[in-house]
Write a structure and sequence with these properties.
With 109 residues, this protein is α+β, with helices and mostly antiparallel strands. It has one domain. It has four helices and five strands; from the N terminus they run ααββααβββ. The strands form two sheets. The protein has a three-stranded antiparallel β-sheet with strand order 2-4-3, with helices on one face. A hairpin with a 2-residue loop joins strand 3 and strand 4.
Length: 109
């Protein structure tokens, strides 16, 4: 799998030397724990999504990647050195895949 088809967040943040801000669930859901404490039987399932973004050019891609990493404008130039690594072409359009996971709690009987 090409880098562009993987999540760019960790790889790009490491390349430009910034600490990545993490959000969300990583199989240790607070809500899951609370429900289990109250006697419910639940399991956590991860659902993968691709919220990819078409871009017109390398500058737009760099700005978009910067925005996705929640960084200041001053990082755009650094990001532009690596932006091409995260772009794929879909139907003749430059595209940045954005992989996200949703955590879904499933009640068991």
């Amino acid at each position: 799998m090409r880098k562009a088809e993987e999540s760019f967040r960790e790889d790009l943040a490491r390349k430009i030397g910034v600490e990545l801000r993490t959000y969300g669930c990583e199989n240790d859901c607070y809500l899951k724990g609370r429900l289990e404490e109250s006697g419910c039987m639940v399991k956590c399932e991860s659902i993968n999504h691709d919220f990819g973004q078409p871009v017109d050019n390398l500058d737009e891609a760099s700005r978009f990647l910067c925005w996705q990493l929640k960084l200041e404008e001053r990082y755009v130039e650094k990001i532009s050195k690596y932006a091409q690594d995260y772009i794929i072409e879909r139907d003749g359009v430059m595209y940045i895949p954005i992989k996200r996971n949703s955590c879904v709690l499933v009640f068991e009987r």
